[in-house]
Design goal:
elongated, 7 helices
Length: 133
C-alpha cells in the first residue's frame, strides 16, 4: 500500500512539473499532451498486466487433496469435466455409457459436495479449488 501511495505521489508530482513547464512555455502543447498520453498508456499496460489472469502453468495438476476431502468419485470427476465443456446430460450419458438418470444423480451429488446451486457455480468452485483446469 505504501508503494502504491508513493507511486501515486510521484505521478502527481510529475504531472504538476509538466504543468509548470507547460505554463512557462518551456515546451509546446503537443509535447505536453504527448508526455501525458505516454504516461496513461504505460499506466494502462501496467494495470492490464496486473489484472489479467495468469495461466496455471504448462501442465494442469488436479488438486487430489480437494477431491478426496470433498468425497468426489472418479466418475463424478468425469461428469464434472464434461459439464465444464458445456455438454448436456444426454451427451454426458452417451459419452460415458451410462443412463441420463445416472448423470442427473452424479450432477446432484456434485452440487451437494461443491455446495453449488447450479452448473455455473459448480464449475466456478471446481476451478477455484483446482479440480478443473
Amino acid at each position: 500500500m505504501i508503494l502504491y501511495g508513493l507511486a501515486l505521489a510521484g505521478g502527481a508530482l510529475l504531472l504538476e512539473w509538466l504543468d509548470y513547464k507547460h505554463a512557462v512555455r518551456a515546451w509546446s502543447t503537443e509535447f505536453y499532451v504527448g508526455i501525458v498520453a505516454i504516461l496513461f498508456v504505460a499506466l494502462g499496460i501496467w494495470v492490464g498486466n496486473r489484472l489479467t489472469a495468469r495461466p496455471h502453468g504448462p501442465v494442469f495438476e488436479r488438486n487430489d487433496a480437494a477431491i478426496r476431502s470433498l468425497g468426489i468419485s472418479d466418475r463424478e470427476c468425469e461428469v464434472l469435466d464434461l459439464l465444464a465443456s458445456g455438454a448436456a446430460n444426454k451427451v454426458i450419458a452417451r459419452r460415458l455409457g451410462i443412463s441420463p438418470n445416472t448423470v442427473k444423480t452424479h450432477v446432484a451429488r456434485l452440487f451437494e459436495k461443491l455446495e453449488a446451486a447450479n452448473r455455473t457455480e459448480a464449475i466456478h468452485k471446481a476451478r477455484t479449488l483446482d479440480i478443473l483446469p
